[in-house]
Amino acid sequence: MKKQQNWAGNYTYSTTNWHTPQNVADIQQLVKECNYVKVVGSRHSFNSIADSEHHMMSLEHLSQVVDFNKEAQTITVEAGMKYSDLSLYLEGTGLALHNLASLPHISVAGACMTATHGSGDHNGNLATIVSGIEFVDANGELVHLSRKDDEETLKALVVGLGGFGVVTKLTLDLVPEYHIKQNVYHNLTLASFQEHVEEIFASAYSVSLFTDWSSPGFNQVWQKEKVAEDASAEAVPELYGATLATEKMHPIAGHGAEHCTDQLGVAGIWHDRMPHFRMNFTPSSGKELQTEYIIPRQHIVDAVTAIGKLGKKISPLLYVCELRSIAQDDLWMSMNYQQDSIGIHFTWKDDWESVQQVLPEIEAALKAFEPRPHWGKLFTMAPAQVQARYPKLPEFRSLLQKYDPNGKFRNPFLDQYIFGE
User: Fold this and answer.
1) N or C: which end of the chain has fewer CB within 10 A?
2) How much is the pLDDT for 284?
3) Which of 337, 329, 336, 342 is nearest to 301 (CA)?
């Protein structure tokens, strides 16, 4: 069997021993038989967090809704379900997810295990709505955790980095269905950003700022505003000096907007507006690299200034950079743990040799602002620096050792960034 790659094609997994269990009993049997095993979701991680030199397990066949409780406003899904399918299931039920990532084609479990997020001042990352999980531990036994029965352990393992077991089901809290209209604004100057950063991020339910660092300021501001279903498409012509777009836009200059969610203020159901890209367009190759650093919100103006000084080095290697706000949470290994945050996300051209040269310079420029790298993306920070950002790390290690005393779910990534001294 040929070695397999991640979605973007930048990472090749280390083994050809791949397993695709059909059900939970298959997972339990595999875990009992394997000395070492790791699980992949939709393969959207860009680094080695989900890799194994021994056995790989894909949960692609576990992709169904297990329980939908409209009265309690919860839904339980199998771990391999993708947000695109979950969103379509919820359509017409009167209930919704609070947020989505920019791509809807990622698996629920994989996104939650790495604290993947969307945007919005009051929107926590995707893991924050998990109220219960079921997983297979290192002995092959089923374990159930819920917010109601063991809230602290759930906080520890919801962003579990794949280190404690094989997640099989997740229960998610839902919100009433809502509609969004999306507008894009051009050319936000650096001066306007510096003066009005709080107002800009607070101007809609979800806000994203895009730049390529070729010049000061931001090329585009994407504003996703909660509205009534039949809301008017009218929008203010300027947003702190940025001008309203009159045609649909792609975040990357020169790319057509046909794969992007509807804009121009046309109201639509939540799942047709919250991602940047349409659900019926599944990215086929990616051919890109991704990096993201999450910093405390109060540092964002200084951080933008620091990165801007590297603009001439960054811009030639970059497709686009996106800034998003994320609400703080109390999930132990979340990048947003106890801090309202801004994510600074780089979508790079597929040139790792060059990108890995500039990442240390970006990380040095951001060091004073205590960045936390996204767990599933590319970074070069020293393990000690990463570990220092997580005050609950010692307790997290202890829990991993409780559920996996012999390191069955460990791999070099976890050894380096979680257990490394």
Assistant:
1) C
2) 44
3) 342
The 10 Å Cβ neighbour count of residue 150 is 14
Answer yes or no: is pLDDT of 293 > 90: yes
The whole model's pTM is what?
0.96
**Which is it for the CA torsion 47, 382, 125, 407, positive or negative?**
positive
Q: What is the mean pLDDT of the chain?
A: 95
Interatomic CA distance for residues 104 and 126, integer angstroms: 12
Would you mind telling me the total number of residues written for the chain in this entry?
421
Neighbours of 170 (CB within 10 A): 25
pLDDT of residue 219: 96
Q: Which helix (H) or strand (E) holds 221?
A: strand 218-227
- Average pLDDT value for residue range 216-233: 92
Please report where in the chains the tokens 């520890």 appear, as a residue.
156
Strand partners, 242: 239
Q: What's the N-to-C CA distance of the chain in angstroms?
A: 36
Helix (H, G, I), strand (E, B) or coil at 1: coil
- C-alpha Rg value of the chain to the nearest Å: 21
**411 by DSSP, 3-state: which?**
coil
Helices of type H across 184-259: 190-201
- Order of all β-strands in the sheet with 56-58: 18-19, 56-58, 38-40
The H or E element that residue 399 is part of is helix 393-403
Which distant-in-sequence residues (6+ apart) come within 8 Å of 30 by Cβ?
19, 21, 37, 55, 57
**What's the CA gap between 85 and 64, in Å, rounded?**
9
- pLDDT value at residue 131: 98
